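Worked Example 4.2. Consider the chain below.
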Amino acid sequence: MVDKDDEILNRRIGGRIRIARAAMGLTQDKLGKFLRVSSHQIHRYEQGAGIPASSLFFAAAILDVPVSYFFADEAESEAEAILETAAKRYSLLLRALQKTERGHPPLFNALREIIVITAQDAPLK
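Applying the procedure from the previous section yields the following structure tokens:
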């Protein structure tokens, strides 16, 4: 039987898996393939079902976050909200770029060049 503390921790870990997955632009299906589980199982992890330690370790590597990211305290909730918003915006931008690449390759190449140049000039905050 899972006690209340375990349930809270599992939900926190699941929420952080969801945020990091979205930030990487991965679907539940794609992350599931990397971890060799179904997309339904990824959904269950994200909803707070316990994830095996080995899967959490591999998820951290795939999602490019330290394992400690999944256990961070609530003081980081504002950062999570910012990350989630950025992930949504990234996803929208990625979809728009994919449509542009198919529909208008020269425009896509120009946009890609602008993004690369801007990213190189942008200071890290």
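The chain has a mean pLDDT of 83. The two ends are 44 Å apart (CA to CA). Compare this with Example 4.1 before moving on.
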